[in-house]
Fold these 4 entries.
Entry 1:
Amino acid sequence: AVDPQTKANGCMQMLKGSQLMGRIEHGRVAGQTGADVGRVEQAMARLELVHCEMQPGDAVFFHANTLHASAANTTDKPRRLLICCYNKATNDPYKPHHHPRYTPLEKLADTAVREAGMTKADESARAFLHEEEDATTEARKAS
């Protein structure tokens, strides 16, 4: 969490135990990539919904098959968070995708962040997903 994550601002929600259902096929749901709606509805009827309320600096780790989503942020407060997904190097994507291909990480000294300094990013720096170039987004399919 970069900002507080609350029920009021639509924090992430997970269905407890849903990873045991195995992988659920994903497709287009309300203009985004999402899990099969029918299976999600059945899971919601049987499994506990957990709201992941967090403070800045908190983190949650969960299985890749765990059904998760966030609600709309209807407040005037931001709900920023950093999402990190891990994958084995041997499971490198076989075709171009919005997820990057395997690249070895370069370890930096503990002092690297301080040496780089902190800057406040402008709004354009947040646009890291170029929807018009990504075949998995609605914007690309419309063109």
Entry 2:
Amino acid sequence: YHLGGYCWGGLVAFELARQLRLAGEDVGLLALIDCPFPGFRQTRSLASRARGRARLGWELVRQNVARVRELAPRQIPPFLWQRLVNLVTRVAGRPAYRWSVRIGRPLLPAFRELANAFHQAGLAYRPGTYPGRIQVLYAAGNRPGRSVDAFAGWTRVATGGVEFYEVPGMHRTMMQEPHVERLSTQLLAILERPLAEPATE
């Protein structure tokens, strides 16, 4: 099996590869394309995270106040209600999602929407050990807080090691022309050499 995933899809590819290897199947390519290791933001200092959250919070307040001013009076209550739902989901999303999975029903209304459920699943996911090698391809133009350090955590779970490749573009442009050509060339180069030993019982 050759598997790969971009962004959140990289987590899906990783878990698929892990389950296949646990089942005794052979996995060759496991390419994680600009898929940071879950929880990488926690490696920043407490002060840095606090400053980032403060900036984000202020920007959200500013945007919402500006939006309220543009609304008709009857539109304001549902708008504020949706903002409250978003806030609760942001603050309590991960534990609420884990409990939703355990009891088999959505604890928050946002989890009834597939995109929100997928998002929370990604945030709640914690990778297990992978008995193989991983190829990580990350965008050269990522913001400073998302340098190669954001992907280094994969070395904790890949017993076969991790190979890192920097490719042109930013997260949202690396899959577009002209950068995607360089990405595909790199993937082909990886595929042309031996990738993994056959799985053992």
Entry 3:
Amino acid sequence: MTQNVKLKVAVLGFGAIGKPVLEGISEIAQAELVGVVVRRAGSTQGVYTELTLEEALDRADLIVECAGGDALKTLGPKVVAAGKNLLTVSFGQLTDENLRRVLLEDGPGNTYLSTGAIGGLDILSAATINGGLNEARLTSRKLPKALVQNWMSEEETEKLLQTSEEVTVFSGNVTEAIKLFPASLNIAVALAAATGLWKETQVELVADPQAKLTRHEVNASGETGTYHFEIVNEPSPENPATSGVVAKAVLRGVAALAKPSGTFV
């Protein structure tokens, strides 16, 4: 983008991530907010211009998805098919190979993945070139009550809630992880997307009654090197299930796309 041309941005979603993203776009000098696509008309109470997806595609250069995995699955293909760029934070659905191809390869629009609540993806993406990495692992620790799922039996739920010790509630691959714990392991998909190790990335989810905050440990290794990261994020004030840094990561992505000069790539 030239200095005098602003990146026109529309946001999908008006929730715990969408609201701070909408507020923050006004602080990005090279970006201009054209509106927000909401599920229910009147959700913004007149604070923002509410658009249909078709209107957003007509007015915006970049569509920022903050509405969840279902929105990415149903609306994402329409965005890239219209030749518009898409920045998404809810990419757990990318374990679906067909959707991954549509969003990341088919075009004509481009899909960009926000780093969300995880870091170190830049160096891992570089390290994996030419087979430089051959394994990656994510270990996440959360409070037991945050890991209760609808598919669990009453006995499993009760056992989880009453545990006084660490309990591993899942150990396996990324596809199975995001299927069973869609709200907890989106970053596992981010790790697989960064490294390209969709089948090799292993995930362990631990219920820890002593966990004050969610803790993620990333390990990756190969001929390029050995990498270890530990991430502990404060929760979003609006939604404790979401890390507060997620919206900030989205805004950083918007700013980088609006004015890429000086950005780490």
Entry 4:
Amino acid sequence: MVIRRFVYLPYYVFKTNWKLFFKYLQTIKKEKNTSYLMLLRGVLYTMIKLNASPLDYFSFRMFDLPREKWFDYPCTGFMYEYQLKMNPPEKRILLKDKKVFLEEFKDFSGRQWATLETLKKDRKYATAFLQQAGKRLVVKNATGQAGKQVDVIDIPANIPDAVITLMEKGHFDLAEHYVEQHDELMRMSPSALNTVRMVTQYAAGDVVILLAFLRISVNSEVDNLSVGSYGVNFGASINLEKGIIDRPGSYLDSSKPDVHFHPVTQVPIVG
């Protein structure tokens, strides 16, 4: 098992955000008054023993935990192998391609959408689609991930040709009507559609909700937590029994402090 984990090392070398890694290293060295050597020993140990990426040691704040607790955390390599079993690659097209997903779940999406191909083929439909959209439109690359290749545009006089040209230039192949979020979410964070991420496990014929959290944008048109090397947007855990946020928010960038008030609007997060 340990030998197999060495196969992941080249992947971690090429995929790790080393700028963020060294930022963590410097921040935690100062915060904990420790040495680089001690921190790097911890990173290497978790990479070999837990199949962790170099960032996992900092993201899970393992330096604050006794070593026996490190094994409680599902690190990057473990999650990769877990997902291979739970979500086989041949089935992932449903989640990887937004066009396939929206078609499969069209009765549940709650918004109108159209592909670039449809807008180009049927100009009458395209005109009606844009008129119903109002003033703003969300354009996406259907296979883009982590909030990338998404843009919110002002519709130029409901002219299909202008929208089609813009989509072609930006390599967008999917258009969706802009969604107006709940007033309370708009009051807290108006820059993007703030969404709830739910983590589930299918077991014994039932779906178990493991956790849920609200993704909150900070002057960003998307709410993904990976924006800006994990330091722009943040998330807040939802108490599943009470249906409220009862803890401060946090960034994926573990060097940043907890968020008690939205940095821009100053709306409290808890409650």
